[in-house]
Predict the 3D structure of the following.
Amino acid sequence: MKKKQPEIKKDAIVIYKTSKNEVELKVRFEGESVWLNQEEIARLYGKERSVVTKHINNIFKDAEVDKKSNVQKLHIANSDKPIVIYGIDVILAVGYRVNSARAIHFRRWATKVLKQHLIKGYTINEKRLLEAREKFQELQEAISFLKEKSGHELLAGQEHEILNLLGNYSKTLTLLEQYDTEKLRLSHTGKGKFVLSYEKAARVIVELRKELFVKKEAGDLFGQEYGEKFKGVLGNIRQSFGGKELYPSLEEKAAHLLYFIIKDHPFADGNKRIGSFLFVYFLDKNKFLYKKTGEKKINDNALTALALLIAISDPKEKDKLVKIITNLLMG
């Protein structure tokens, strides 16, 4: 039985670039070597891929390096065809054969910087370290924001839920451990097919009003629109610029939907309840409301606290609230 090639982890990266910025490569680091495919090796040395292919074939033919330990297959998401990648011995061997200025530069870099990485087990990646610091600062600001708002008179009785929000949000402080193990998530990537149109939303609000009216929890003004403001809110969620959506992820759309309805007051009455209900409805229709455990990502009590936080917040604090909501939805 043929032994299956181990899958190379794609999230361990070393950045290499020349002093004149002629070339910049994200070099895969795995085990005790780094890995590039033929196209990357060609770009590294400024040569045609056919030249690199010829050199690699000759290197193996001459038994200059061990083929078994220097060739792996990288499996890429959404692709059935793996990419062949080559270890540092092959990369350097090709570099000696082409003998170009770029090859000399890379050999020097590999000797000094890469050797340190292999021996000490780490390389300082300035770009990712900066991202981690920015993310950590964002989390600190969010927690400070929640602590500050918890003392507001309109949030009296919501202290427990604020603490729960703090607890759930602080779980993302595993950021530092995630960064150390190369598992840092810096973006929100949820996607959904369901689009909340004005017609659909209007029908939902009518049904919600009927239900609350029976319970004597809504009056005649509940859900009555101020002009075109509600249509404007829904339009803002889907707006794009230069062919790209302003809020591309599902988390961002949901967070802004909740924020805009509560903060822009498109209805004469019931803005917080309507915003919260449509927030849940939108997530549910996109199959994004629940965790794998079956729990809601943001339960009803926590949502009430978030709605009140939005209501009392300063418009300048919008980005903080949106980040809090999107991070909670990633749970």
Summary: The beta strands are 13-17, 24-30, 33-37, 71-74, 83-86, 240-241, 244-245. The first strand starts at residue 13 and ends at 17. Residues 1-13, 170-187 have pLDDT under 50 and may be disordered.
